């Protein structure tokens, strides 16, 4: 359901109607179409493609490897202030944790916004929509898209993020949740990290479908969908109810053996990955070369067309349940027929 007076096939960053255009006309830039899912879920398996996909995800500097490095660093940074053996005495560590999360969000979202949108360090190269943000701010709090997004990100977003993260870290520390160390089982420890992305995608799909239901959309999710032309600060700019749902996937660690690194990695995949993925640019393109993958075109399609791509490419629920838009004209026509417009 579109926000405010938007139609699901009109991009507020341009004056063009999607049905009359080719994909190249609809977008300033887009990846090769049609887009696919994680090749691990494509049949028949093509092992070189599967290997290349996961090599680029885990063994090169990528969004995922970046947040994993941050999760490990946060674990060691927090050690001096964490309570010992379930001692809940001083809650200073929660304030430190909030400060770390706040700093990371400001560094990642603020840094990307400055370089891409203020400094315009690569112009519109690799930018999905050529316009920079929405003109006019009537639909936004404070009458400004960026100010609106910063407010909801920092006040509600980082608040829920830290609250849930602190609950899980405290339960691990107190022994109320099953803990695992690297030395106990390196394979299981690594497998939990590897499966975090698919679990987040599974949880996100169903929570996102719920948020698109009638009154829930109108009073909750529409706040996030004010952003058709997205930017870094829109990644976790959400209504508090949506934050409560979105970040709740971390509670899977109540039921599986986990380590604080798993908790931090999970929260950074939810928070920082959303910020990076909403950058509006496909990559940092410096020196005529893609240096670091940024935007999630799969989700960019959701922000334009609304009733598609509720999950992510990590887990193919959109394909299985008929809500997958691969960027092609065929997908557009199928979506249009499903919505009967």
Salient structural properties:
2 strands; iron ion binding; disordered N terminus; mainly alpha; two-stranded antiparallel ribbon; 50% helix; EC 1.3.-.-; 341 residues
What does this structure look like?
The protein has 341 residues and is an all-alpha fold. The chain has a domain at 63-82 and 89-197 and 220-295. Helices cover 50% and strands 2% of the residues. The protein contains 12 helices and 2 strands; from the N terminus they run αααααααααββααα. The protein has a two-stranded antiparallel sheet with strand order 1-2. Strand 1 and strand 2 (290-293) form a beta hairpin. Helix 3 (63-78) packs across helix 9 (260-277). It starts with 22 loop residues before the first helix and ends with a helix. Residues 1-20 have low confidence and may be disordered.
Write the SSE topology.
Elements: H1 23-26, H2 47-58, H3 63-78, H4 92-118, H5 145-174, H6 186-211, H7 214-219, H8 240-246, H9 260-277, E1 283-285, E2 290-293, H10 297-305, H11 317-320, H12 329-339
Helix pairs in contact: 3-9, 4-5, 4-9, 5-9, 6-9
